[in-house]
Structure formats: C-alpha cells, structure tokens
Amino acid sequence: MTAAVTVAQIREPAAMRAAVLESRAAGRRVGFVPTMGALHAGHASLVEQAALECDDVVVSIFVNPSQFGPTEDFARYPRTLAADAALLAPRGVRWIFVPEAADMYPPGAATRVVVDGPARRFEGEIRPGHFAGVATVVCRLFHCVPADVAYFGAKDWQQTLVVKRMVHDLGLPIEIAVCPTVREADGLAMSSRNAYLAAEERRRAVALHEGLCAAERLWQSGGAVAAVEQAIRDPLETRGIAIDYAAVVAADTLEPLPAAGAQPPAIAIVAGRLGGTRLIDNRLLPPRRRPG
Question: What is 192-283's CATH topology?
C-alpha cells in the first residue's frame, strides 16, 4: 500500500476518457475497478490487485439505477463518497470517476445491452431486467474508462460471467480479471448490503457460508448433486433464511451438470433473504472423477 495522496475526482465522461487514453498513449497500463460505492475490504482488495498489476488505477463510484428493480433498495443504497475516497487514497488510485446519472443515461437514451446465456437463470429469473442494467452500465463505463483491464469480485460470480460474455460478444478491447471473495472473520462474504443486517440477522447470515462449506465437503466425498444442493440449504432452513436458490451447476455457464460422462468445473451458488436484505455467495468446487 502506498502513502495516502489526494485522488483526483472526475465527473465528466469525456474528461475521464481523455485522461485514460493519454495515460495509455504514454505506455502506461490502466486498471479499472467499477463500483457502486459503500466501499469495504472486498473492494480494497480489488483496488490493491489493480495497483499491483497496473501503472494507473481508476475506480468508478456510481449507484446505477437501471439494475435495481421497482421493489429493490436503490433509494437506501449507501452513498458514502467521502469515506470511499478516504479508503482509496492510500491504495494507489489515480482517479475516482463519479459521473451523474444524466451523464451515464443522457436524455432520450434508448439503447440497452441485453445478454442471454449466463444471464438467463438464477439472478436473471429472480430479478428481471437486472443484468440488462448491469451490462448496459458496464458497457457505458468501459467506453468512459477505456482501461486495459477491469477487476471484479468473485462473490458476484454470475455477474462476472455476464460481463465476460458481453465483452467477448461485442469485441470490447478490455481484459476481465476476477479476484477472490473477501470474507469476514466468520466467513460471511463482504458486501455493502451487510450493513443493512440487524445484529440478530447478521448472526444468522453466516449460514450461507456454512452451507457452502458443507456442500464442498460432501462434493469431495462423492455426494450426488442433489445431496450437495441440500447441504447448502440445510443451515439456511435451520436459521429461517428464505432461500431464493441453492444449486450446483457448471461454473462457466451456470447450466446443469451432465448426469454422466465428462464433468465441467462446478460451482455452488446460493441466494437468501433475511428480512429486507438479500445476500448471495458461491464456492468453486474442486474437480472430481465421477459426477454424483
């Protein structure tokens, strides 16, 4: 970690794009960490990885309205720009990009990016339009911040697949780096939404991590997929967490694993709700010889 410095904040997309292009023209490698703010140690780990691998780092802070459903938490999503800037200052960030909604979605804007494939199931089914909002804003951000590489966290695994698919299909000239999930001491995946949890909900929330750990153990011992999925569900059901999904699927597509024959890399994914707070998590599963 470098010494704290004053980080330049840029609001205008054209100015942000010009700064990045000038840096790259000078032969500097630029890393980009897109965020919605309310930064925590998970975001910090992405920024630190970007600073390790790149000459200049951009972090965007933009609470994207188009990825929230009508009953979701856009209005109460934390806006903590001063604290976010303080977290970023000692971590080698050169620019913070803080656009206004009117700059990201100019009046009359009528184009959306819709990704099928990895966006179809799970979050795509439960939150209609969510991934179109994600893909649209990320595509727009990549235009404003034409970096060499963008960094995303593995906690939002399905989102990383959607972004990779979009980048591949549209031929966008940017590399996507996916970094490991950062966890609290008890295993709960760090998330800006953890701040919504009451103390009693926070104690129960660790059930997501416990379920994934149990699933991995059963997977490694040769358990059938259905049994591994139930192992994810058990701690959540015991602690009264409403389950949106708990599944073991192909890691690269989120499609069901084949019943026989060669088995692709797998991932266990889970989403649950505690009161008005929705949490997600996942765990990559090690290869095994035979499907369960």
Answer: Pantoate--beta-alanine Ligase; Chain: A,domain 2 (3.30.1300)
Helix spans in 187-264 (H): 199-205, 207-220, 225-238
Rounded to whole angstroms, the Cα distance separating 230 from 243 reads 11
| Residues that are catalytic | 43
Stated pTM of the model:
0.94
Please state, in angstroms and as integers, the Cα–Cα distance from residue 140 to each residue in 7, 64, 147, 286, following that order: 23, 11, 13, 35
CA distances from 271 to 158, 244, 246, 281 (A): 12, 5, 7, 7
Report how far residue 230's alpha carbon sits from residue 207's, in angstroms, rounded to the nearest whole number.
13
Helix (H) or strand (E) holding 8: strand 8-10
**What residues have CB less than 8 Å from 265, skipping those under 6 apart?**
250, 251, 252, 284, 285, 287
CB-side neighbour CA atoms (13 Å) of 126: 15
Does domain 8-179 fall into CATH 3.40.50.620? yes
Domain boundaries, the chain: 8-179, 192-283
pLDDT in tens, 117-165: 999 999 999 999 999 999 999 999 999 999 999 999 999 999 999 999 9
